[in-house]
Amino acid sequence: MTAQKLDGAATAAAIKAELTTRVAALAARGVVPGLGTLLVGDDPGSRWYVNGKHKDCAEVGLASIREELPADATQGDIEAAVQRLNDDPTCTGYIVQLPLPRGIDQHRVLELVDPDKDADGLHPTNLGRLVLRVNDPVTSPLPCTPAGIIELLERHDVPLHGADVVVVGRGVTVGRSIGLLLTRREVNATVTLTHTGTTDLAEHTRNADVVIAAAGVPGVVTAEIVKPGAVVVDVGVSRELDAVTGKSRVVGDVHPNVWDVASWVSPNPGGVGPMTRAMLLANVVAMAERRAG
Ligand SMILES: Nc1nc2c(c(=O)[nH]1)N[C@@H](CN(C=O)c1ccc(C(=O)N[C@@H](CCC(=O)O)C(=O)O)cc1)CN2
């Protein structure tokens, strides 16, 4: 068996086309939503991600606002930039590109983001709303990567209702929050959250209909621990030097031999990354629509 690919790039392109129509409808009412980004420092990966977000904005017709600070910016400089974005009326929603440089209190910075402008859905108020209003209609931004994974699965008709889903990794941006989304009444999956304290990972994954690997451990999910026909989503990002080209490349958590047993695989790169970007745009458009009434 060779698994089929859950194509994040193609699905993200389809979502962006739908968003372009919604943005045009807003423009007809005189509303131009704007996405802001705050980039601190000169990490090439982070710059690449931020540039991609601005390129996406241009593609769907969103305005974009850039704040950039040098790597030696102080906590105060960063908090002042956050305040500028909070106060900027052209900025519908924004993100603080993570990680922030060492020595900066990231939690404090994120808590200063206006929850109504939190395009990443990672502000404690929005995560709290996700916990408290888990079965209400969604009216606040959802974390982009978990929302993107569910959208990717649903658009490929992967059944989630009643499915046993094992999540590998308990990080806030993916592992912890995807459990909340998957157990919402309209999705209705049963979720097991595994982590470094899990004594026997295979015991869980071997029974799973869907495995979501977000541990950041290259190749941790192998064919031997995946049920034949299961659906596997690779969210892990590790960087490795390619022995042939000498260049750095992204390596996921899913071993290539998983393609021999699974029914569907979302690869990395080419899977969840483009979906994360698409869901960020979707959050900003939804914020603008809610405000426009
Ligand atoms: N404030 C945030 N910071 C970070 C987030 C986030 O969601 N919000 N996630 C990551 C970085 N990220 C978005 O910011 C992101 C990562 C990956 C991709 C992507 O499309 N990746 C490509 C491959 C790229 C490569 O080869 O390096 C893919 O998966 O095909 C988009 C966005 C950390 N920070």
From TrEMBL:
All residue ranges annotated as the Tetrahydrofolate dehydrogenase/cyclohydrolase NAD(P)-binding domain in the record: 143-291
Residue ranges annotated for the Tetrahydrofolate dehydrogenase/cyclohydrolase catalytic domain, each copy included: 6-120
Signal peptide stretch: none
Keyword Amino-acid biosynthesis included in the entry's annotation: yes
Pfam families: THF_DHG_CYH, THF_DHG_CYH_C
Gene3D superfamilies attached to this UniProt entry: Leucine Dehydrogenase, chain A, domain 1, NAD(P)-binding Rossmann-like Domain
Enzyme nomenclature, EC number: 1.5.1.5, 3.5.4.9
Keyword annotations from UniProtKB, A to Z: Amino-acid biosynthesis, Histidine biosynthesis, Hydrolase, Methionine biosynthesis, Multifunctional enzyme, NADP, One-carbon metabolism, Oxidoreductase, Purine biosynthesis
Catalytic reactions of this protein: (6R)-5,10-methylene-5,6,7,8-tetrahydrofolate + NADP(+) = (6R)-5,10-methenyltetrahydrofolate + NADPH; (6R)-5,10-methenyltetrahydrofolate + H2O = (6R)-10-formyltetrahydrofolate + H(+)
Binding positions (NADP(+)): G169, R170, G171, V237
Recorded metabolic or biological pathway in which this protein acts: One-carbon metabolism; tetrahydrofolate interconversion
Record function comment: Catalyzes the oxidation of 5,10-methylenetetrahydrofolate to 5,10-methenyltetrahydrofolate and then the hydrolysis of 5,10-methenyltetrahydrofolate to 10-formyltetrahydrofolate.
Database matches in NCBIfam families: PRK14193.1
Subunit structure comment from the entry: Homodimer.
HAMAP family: THF_DHG_CYH (MF_01576)
Family that this chain belongs to: Belongs to the tetrahydrofolate dehydrogenase/cyclohydrolase family.
Descriptive protein name: Bifunctional protein FolD
Naturally occurring in which organism (per UniProt): Cellulomonas phragmiteti
